[in-house]
Specification:
This protein has about 290 residues and is α/β, with parallel strands linked by helices. The protein is built from twelve helices and six strands. About 35% of the residues are buried.
Length: about 290
């Protein structure tokens, strides 16, 4: 299979929750309807029946097990502003949302998709969905990433496309990819990720000036170099540890064909998803060497 459609499950989950919050607060299991509907819409949009592609649902490990969390903890020494911070420590969840019930419901959904469909549900105990999607983008000749997350802009190329399901269109990047990534590393990310600029008050305009002679600046300024390397490890998706990449790669390359009409029908009936039974054949994906 030369084509892959990678779905950022965390993004899909949070988008689905907050777009249907009132209904989910009353009936958490309703989220399964919403998410299955979204997955079906994605598979239809990219015509996996007539132009087959592997479909990967990429999921996150727990934050405490994330390799970036460990790197952040060990690497932040010497940077005063990081002393009380943790990786993505500002990403608080709304207490109004029944997260426990939601994770129980979506856990059952992922299990059903993994065990009874040809969709590949892929996770790694020490990696984020970003790492799974990055690996998939390197292992297939053609790749579509379904997410609104700007972190994936660095992957966009002739053979890797990003589809934004919120805007319902492909993402277009005008800026050179290398410069875009360098700017992102220099300026850090939003406060919710707790990744700070490489210098105090270093914004996009200053970053543009530094990029012109970046190697020289990094060679001459030890603190800037150390901060840049720290941010680069957290932001540049190609910095995923080799052993984690290889383990994800092995999962991606497994020829997993688990489609079971009976098992899926049982799951749909048990969870009140009768209408979706009309789409059941969509979850059986034929092998193909076609390109998109």
């Amino acid at each position: 299979m030369n084509r892959v459609i990678s779905i950022d499950f965390s993004h899909l989950l949070h988008r689905s929750v907050f777009a249907n919050l009132k209904m989910i607060e009353e009936t958490p299991s309703f989220l399964s309807h919403v998410m299955l509907g979204s997955i079906i819409s994605i598979m239809k949009k990219f015509d996996v029946k007539n132009d087959p592609a592997d479909v990967i649902i990429a999921t996150d490990c727990s934050r405490k097990n994330n390799w970036r969390t460990k790197f952040y903890l060990e690497g932040k020494e010497g940077f005063p502003e990081y002393s009380e911070e943790t990786y993505k420590g500002n990403r608080a969840k709304s207490m109004k949302v029944p997260w426990d019930e939601i994770y129980t419901s979506t856990g059952k959904l992922l299990k059903a998709l993994e065990e009874s469909t040809d969709i590949k549900v892929i996770s790694h105990e020490n990696a984020e969905a970003d790492d799974v999607i990055y690996t998939a983008s390197k292992e297939y000749e053609r790749s579509i990433i379904v997410s609104s997350d700007k972190d994936f802009h660095q992957l966009i190329s002739e053979n890797v496309k990003q589809y934004d399901p919120l805007k319902k269109k492909f993402v277009k990047i005008e800026e050179d990819q290398k410069r875009l990534l360098q700017k992102h590393i220099l300026t850090g990310q939003s406060r919710k990720d707790n990744i700070f600029p490489c210098r105090k008050k270093l914004g996009p305009k200053t970053a543009e000036k530094l990029i012109e002679y970046l190697d020289s600046h990094l060679e001459a300024d030890e603190e800037l170099r150390n901060r840049y390397k720290f941010n680069e490890k957290l932001i540049d998706l190609s910095k995923v540890p080799v052993e984690i990449y290889d383990e994800i790669k092995r999962e991606i390359n497994k020829d997993q064909r688990n489609f079971s009409t009976n098992n899926l029908l049982d799951f749909f009936r048990e969870n009140g998803l009768r209408k979706i039974t009309e789409e059941i054949d969509l979850f059986s994906i034929k092998k193909s060497n076609s390109l998109f």
